[in-house]
Amino acid sequence: MSLIRQTLKHFARINGILAKRLLSLDNANVQNRYNNSTSTDDPSQFPGAKAPFVSNLKLIEHTDYDAIPIYRVMDSDGYISDDSQDPQLSKEVVQKMFNDMVQLNTMDKILYESQRQGRISFYMTNFGEEASHIGSAAALEMRDLIYGQYREAGVLVWRGFRIDQFIDQCYGNCDDDGRGKQMPVHYGSKELNFVTISSPLSTQMPQAVGAAYAMKLRPNNDACVVCYFGEGAASEGDAHAAFNFAATLQCPVIMFCRNNGFAISTPSHEQYKGDGIAARAHGYGMATIRVDGTDVFAVYNAMKLARKYVLRENKPVVFEAMAYRVGHHSTSDDSTAYRSADEIEVWNSKEHPLSKLKSYMVRKGWFNENDEKEFVKDVRKKVLKQINVSEKKLKPNWKEMFEGVYSEIPAHLKEQMKELESHINTHRNHYPVKNFQE
């Protein structure tokens, strides 16, 4: 009997060893799938996340993942790094890209000084970010809907927004499409499919996702939405809500982040600790792409790819353009208080979008120094002439501040308008009523 017991114990011990080895092999296989496999035969059944089981406990750090690479076509000297990535744009298109960036740059310089002279109340320049505007706009179709933040004037330049329209808006006169109801640089154009800019950060982001969802529901939709925002705006709650809605509703929207390194006086390393803004797409379940925002061809190629993807898949893309804000955040900022002049100079010379494209054009034989000087001279003349015209135009009738929100003015606004009219009539000598339309 003891022999039988010993035999049974022996087999039990062998079975235990086999069982442990099989369990170990199974755990190794699961771990291997976790680390290396993209198989969809997932053992977990949780509705909240699909992932493999593992038996080793590990705290996963953000540093465990490689940073998302930055796609570029041109290097700092304007050379094409890989000929297969050259978009092979015609001379006419490249010349328009360059001229539009030069026009934006020239207009910015004059209007910035206009604010410093007290002629307009506020201004924001686009220095260093011209390529992200022009490259992305060139890759889109006019039917695509744009939601801007307040540093995308180049998109409007590409689409045909005129110098007089820019300046009339900044001066808030009677010919301003916004009828003087917005701060300067808060442009909008129904004709050009560019939604009027709002001052509060990131409010345009959930709105853009909603517009994209509406487009998705249209039969045979062939247009997408592009929503521009800065990396600072990405810290707002609206940004996270927009990301989540875009992903879960699977909307044809390109969430275009201009990561220029600074949210007014706050550098990016104080804004977030993760891998920029592009990495957030993974957390929300979206496709992503990161490009050199100073390389107009890289932005162009990437936007073409992103647009094709969102229309084909009816899914969003987070697009991060890495750049450097050469100018001050706005006329309310002095960037020399938080960064060195030497640092700015690097990005305003060799790393500047115009410098790279100019070098490319020189090698192609498409650049003429005298033509550029004449073009800048012509733009300056037009801008200065228009400023003299725009600042002499009357402001819209003050009653228009009560109009344009409701289809019919409600009773409480009518009462307020009546009270203001009485006040102005009583104290007419204290108000510049002659500057306003009757």
Your description of this structure?
45% of the residues lie in helices and 8% in strands. It has 438 residues and is α/β, with parallel strands linked by helices. The chain folds into 2 domains: 83-390, Thiamin diphosphate (ThDP)-binding fold, Pyr/PP domains (Rossmann fold), CATH 3.40.50.970; 398-435, no CATH class. A 6-stranded parallel beta sheet has the order 2-1-3-4-8-7, sandwiched between helices. Strands 5-6 form a two-stranded antiparallel ribbon. Helix 10 (296-313) links the parallel strand 7 and strand 8. It starts with a helix and ends in a 12-residue tail after the last helix.
Which fold name corresponds to the CATH topology of the largest domain?
Answer: Rossmann fold
Mean pLDDT: 91
Largest sheet, in brief, is: 6 strands, parallel
Structural category = alpha/beta
CATH superfamily of the largest domain: Thiamin diphosphate (ThDP)-binding fold, Pyr/PP domains
Strand order of the largest sheet: 2-1-3-4-8-7
By CATH, the architecture of the largest domain is named 3-Layer(aba) Sandwich
Outline type: globular
What's the total number of strands?
A: 8
Number of domains: 2
Q: What is the class of the largest domain in the CATH system?
A: Alpha Beta
Strand content: 5-15%
Instruction: Note the run of SSEs as H and E.
Output: HHHEHHEHEHEEEHHEHEHHHH
Q: How helix-rich are the residues, as a percent range?
A: 40-55%
DSSP helix count?
Answer: 14
* Cα Rg: 28 Å
Cα end-to-end separation: 117 Å
Spans of at least 5 consecutive residues with low confidence? 1-5, 7-12, 14-34, 36-40
